Amino acid sequence: MIFMLCGTRDALELALVLAGQGLPPVASVVTREAAQQLEAVGINTVTGRLDREGMIAMLRKGGYHAVVDASHPFAAEAHANAIAVAAALGLPYFRYERRRGTYPRHPRLMEVSSYEEAARTAKALKGSVMLTTGGKTLAIFARELIGDPDIRLTVRLLPSLENIEKCRTLGIDQRNIIALQGPFSWEMNEALYRQYGTQVMITKESGAEGAVEEKLSAALEMGIFVILVTRPVMPPIREGGIFDSFEKLAAAVKAALAAEASGGAMRFNTK
After folding, report:
1. Which of 45, 61, 119, 141 could be disulfide-bonded to 35 (CB atoms 3.0-4.6 Å)?
2. Backbone phi, then psi, for 83, in 5-degree steps?
C-alpha cells in the first residue's frame, strides 16, 4: 500500500493519477471536508493530525510500501516527519513539489527566508500591510506589527471559523480581515490592494497553483513593496525523489515497488 500525505488542491489530482496507474493510495488529511472530497472519487482516507510516532505505528501496522508527500510546499514539519518516517521504516519517499516561479529582479521585491524576517522587514517599511501567507502564520506577524501606530495590518486568508477566531484572539480588527477563498486573478488582487490602500504585500513562494505571479505582478505594477518568503530547505532523501510532474512521480513509485517485489532497489532523485 501507498501512504499519501495530502495538503493542497494538487493532492486530489495526484491521488487520481496514482490510482489510475494501479497504485491506489491511502490519503492522510487533516479535515473531514478534505476526506469527503477524496472519498467522493474513490480514494480511501485517514483523518486527523499524525505525529511522527503515530505515523510510524500506522504505516508499520498497515504494511505500507511507499510514502508519497503532497503536503503544501511550506509544510516543513509535515515534510520532515514524512522523510524521517520513511527512513525509519526503510520505505522510499516521493514528494510532489510545485514548480518554482521565476520572478524578475525589481527594486520593490524583497526575498526573505522566514516569516520572522518578513515581519521585521514589514515593520521597517511601515504603512498599510496586506498579509497573504495564511492563518498559521498570523501570530508571527501580529507580534511584530499590531500596535505600531504607523502600520495597518490587513490579513487575507481562508474563511474558516478557526482563522476568524485566531484573528479575534490576536487583536486583528474585523475591518482588517479579508476572508476569501482564492486563488485570485490579477484584477481581483488589484482591486483589493486599492480598496485597502496597500503599500506592502507579504506572500510566500507557493508556486503557480497558488497564483503567486498574479499577486506579485499586480502589486509591483501598483508600486507596492512585495516581501516574498522563499521555500524552506528540506532534509535530504535517502531513497525516492522529488518530482514536479504527477505522471513522473507515479512512474517512479511504480518502478520502485516493482524493484522491491523483484528483490532489488531503485533510487530516484530528479524532477
Report:
1. 45
2. -65, -45
169 & 243 share domain: no
Q: How many CA atoms lie within 13 A of 57 on its CB side?
A: 5
Instruction: Kindly state whether residues 27 and 80 are assigned to the same domain.
Output: yes
**pLDDT confidence of residue 157:** 94
pLDDT digits (tens, 9 = 90+) for 213-237: 889 999 999 999 999 999 888 778 8
Question: Are both 113 and 225 inside the same structural domain?
Answer: yes
For residue 183, the Cα-to-chain-centroid distance in whole angstroms is 13
**Residue in this structure with the C-alpha cell 485597502, named with its chain if needed:** 196
Strand order in the sheet with 151-157: 109-112, 225-229, 200-204, 127-131, 151-157, 177-179
pLDDT in tens, 158-182: 998 999 999 999 999 999 999 998 8
Q: Which three cell numbers stand for residue 32?
A: 473531514
**Residues facing 93 on adjacent strands:** 67, 240
Which structural domain range is residue 186 located in?
109-229
What's 248's domain CATH number? 3.40.50.720
Query: Could you tell me if 171 and 86 lie in one domain?
Result: no
- Evaluate if residue 267 carries a pLDDT over 60: no
> Measuring CA to CA, which residue among 165, 106, 166 is closest to residue 137?
166
Mapping DSSP onto H, E and C, the string for 11-70 reads HHHHHHHHHHCCCCEEEEECCHHHHHHHHCCCCEEEECCCCHHHHHHHHHHHCCCEEEEE
Mean pLDDT of the chain: 91
Return the C-alpha cell found at 225: 513593496
Say which CATH number the domain at 195 has: 3.40.50.620
Classify strands 151-157 and 177-179 as parallel, antiparallel or unpaired: parallel
Q: Is residue 104 part of a domain?
A: no
Which residues make Cβ contacts (< 8 Å) with residue 31, sequence separation at least 6?
47
Report the C-alpha gap between 10 and 1 in whole angstroms. 20
